[in-house]
Design brief:
Elements: E1 6-9, H1 15-26, E2 30-35, H2 43-51, E3 55-58, H3 64-78, E4 83-86, H4 101-129, E5 132-137, H5 150-170, E6 175-182, H6 199-204, H7 206-224, H8 230-241, E7 250-253, H9 258-276
C-alpha cells in the first residue's frame, strides 16, 4: 500500500466536489473523485480530472452495488482513505406542502441515505486502521430554516444529526468527523434546483405568498456573487491537514456565516447534555 495520503470525494464532477479534488491533488494527495455517469453525462469532467492526475471512479450514492464496487476498487488500491468527503447532493426548493412524499424521499435518498451508504462501505477499514477523517458537506441551512427551503434544509438537518452522532461513536476509533456548512456560492446548484411536483398545491397558495420564493432565490444568488467555491475546498483541505483530535465539528464557510452563531450557542448545551447522561467520554475535544 502507498504511504501517500488518500482522499475520496463524492460528487466530484462539479461544484464544491470538483474544487475539492483539485485542491487535494494540488497538495500532493492521492485523490479519488467519484461521480455517476463517467462515460456518458459526466464523461467530459471525468476526462479533465484524469488529465489532472485524479483517479475517477464510478459511484452512484443511490445504489448499494455501485457504492460497494467503488469502495472495493479504492480499498484494494490504497487501503482505507485518510479522508472521506461526502459531498454529493442536490437541492429541492419550494412550498413544503407542494412536494409529494415520493419527491421528498428522492431528496433524502441523495442527501441523507447516500452519505450513510458511502460511510458503511468505507468505515470498517477506517475503524480497523483507527484513524481518518469523514467530512460532510452540509449547508448553513443545516442550522437555519427559510420558507420554500424546508425540504432541502430538513435533509441537511438530518445529515448533520447523523454526522454528529457518528462523531461520538467513532471517537474511540481515532476517527474525526467534520461538518462543513457553506453559505451561498455560485455553483451549479441554482441551475439544478428541483421544484415542488404538485402544481395544484402550489396554485392553492396564490401569487402573494409565492412571490417570496422569488425573493429568497434572488437573495441567495445575490449573496453568492463574488465568492469563490474554492473557499469550501480550502476549508476541507485545512481540516484534512489539521492534527487528529483538533478539528472542529462544524465549520462555516465563509467564517462568521449566520450558522456560526448557532453552532457556538448550541455546543455547550450539547456537551452538557452528553456529560449529564454519562456519555462525556465520547465527546470530541473540539465541538464547535
Amino acid at each position: 500500500m502507498s504511504e501517500q495520503r488518500s482522499a475520496v470525494v463524492t460528487g466530484a464532477n462539479s461544484g464544491f466536489g470538483r474544487k475539492t479534488v483539485e485542491a487535494f491533488a494540488a497538495a500532493g494527495w492521492r485523490v479519488y473523485g467519484t461521480m455517476r455517469d463517467t462515460t456518458t453525462r459526466n464523461a467530459a469532467p471525468a476526462a479533465e480530472l484524469r488529465a489532472a492526475g485524479i483517479t475517477v471512479v464510478e459511484l452512484d450514492v443511490l445504489s448499494d452495488a455501485s457504492v460497494e464496487a467503488a469502495a472495493a476498487t479504492i480499498l484494494g488500491e490504497s487501503g482505507a482513505p485518510d479522508v472521506l468527503v461526502n459531498n454529493a447532493g442536490n437541492g429541492f426548493f419550494g412550498l413544503v406542502e407542494a412536494f409529494t412524499p415520493a419527491a421528498v424521499e428522492r431528496q433524502y435518498a441523495t442527501n441523507v441515505v447516500g452519505p450513510l451508504r458511502v460511510n458503511r462501505a468505507f468505515l470498517p477499514a477506517m475503524r480497523e486502521r483507527k484513524s481518518g477523517l469523514i467530512v460532510y458537506v452540509s449547508s448553513v441551512v443545516g442550522r437555519l430554516v427559510f420558507p420554500f427551503g424546508g425540504v432541502y434544509a430538513s435533509s441537511k438537518w438530518a445529515l448533520e444529526a447523523l454526522a454528529e452522532a457518528s462523531s461520538y461513536e467513532l471517537s474511540p476509533f481515532g476517527i474525526d468527523v467534520a461538518i462543513v456548512q457553506p453559505g451561498a456560492y455560485p455553483t451549479d446548484i441554482f441551475g439544478k434546483v428541483v421544484g415542488a411536483d404538485d402544481a395544484a398545491r402550489v396554485a392553492g397558495y396564490g401569487d402573494d405568498l409565492a412571490k417570496y420564493n422569488d425573493v429568497l432565490t434572488v437573495g441567495l444568488i445575490a449573496a453568492s456573487q463574488g465568492r469563490d467555491p474554492g473557499d469550501v475546498a480550502d476549508a476541507i483541505l485545512h481540516l484534512a491537514n489539521a492534527p487528529a483530535g483538533t478539528r472542529a465539528l462544524r465549520t462555516t464557510v465563509p467564517a462568521g456565516e449566520d450558522a456560526a452563531e448557532i453552532n457556538a450557542a448550541v455546543a455547550p448545551i450539547q456537551r452538557a447534555a452528553l456529560a449529564a447522561r454519562g456519555l462525556g467520554d465520547l465527546l470530541p475535544k473540539v465541538l464547535v
